[in-house]
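Pipeline run #58 for the internal structure catalog. This entry was flagged by the ingest filter as a single-chain record with no existing model, so it goes straight to prediction. Upstream metadata was stripped on purpose; only the residue string is passed forward. Reviewer on rotation: M.T. Logging verbosity set to normal.
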Amino acid sequence: MLSKSSIINEVKPLNLLEERQKFFADTSYNPQFVYQRSIDPAELTVWGVPKEVFFRHALEMMAYWNRQGKDEYPKTFSPRVTQEFVVQEVEAFNSRYNLSQPVSTLFSETTIARCMLKGNTLVLRANLDYTQNTFRDVMRHELETHYLRRYNHALQPWGKEKFPDFVFRRTEEGLANLHTFLFRPKKLLFKTYRTYVATYYAQRGSFVDVFNQMVALGISEETSFNLALRTKRGIEDTSQPGGLTKDVSYLEGSVAVWAWLQQSENDPKDLYLGRISLEQIPELKPESTTEGLLYPSFFTDMTEYREHITVIGKKNHFDTLIAHVLENEEE
């Protein structure tokens, strides 16, 4: 029986730094990870496994992106952020929403993700790799999506019910991912595609296989290592196929949420009733309250919001994937 709580916090290897050093001393070495507990492989794939049609689409879009050039924002117009800037932005978020339990910031040398929301703490890699524009994209993802949905969830009559992570995760990450790219000029989901591709390879090969495949796609060795780590988390002997499949949620969820938002009768505010899935909205909306709910700043102009969402789908050719999202819902 799978736990209702997410295992994401349990799949960080205890010996990560040691195994990282071994790998870069010999890139044919498959790390041997140690965890707090032995993890059942079934727990690592509760989000599903990568699908061939999404994998092929991701490869095609990565190739297109490489031809177009990767810079989303003109670097000259957006300086790189400092830790002080990050703290100020988070404090501004707290002030804007008048939060009784404000979000704090923590800079970590060991976190696997570049940025993640853990409780009421925004955890970032100490070596910040953001411009001001891209960090504000992160704020829309982590705080104006994840945090606000969780905040609103607690206000609902059914708010004490914590649904299993795999129930709402595809909607959760799909929505947050769309919001990451909402105001980007090109709106091409390059990082979404590369994590999907890495997850696909991880389910079929070793840590070294994932690393080599990503390097072959033109991705730096440092980033390729991080992608292999993300997608091989949870297994001890990384020479074996398998690993965490949470990253399939970003691409598949983006397509599902985009398709839902294309229906004019669907209200985007329903996505902020709580940490629930698209499929749960019809059931839970009649039992929900809107009193005291918080909504993201970009909902001020809902017409503009829908236009940006529509463009994301068009530029990423989501229409070719909708049928396969519907197949998921029928399974």
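catalog note: Residues 81-129 form one domain.
catalog note: The first strand starts at residue 104 and ends at 108.
status: ready for reviewer M.T.
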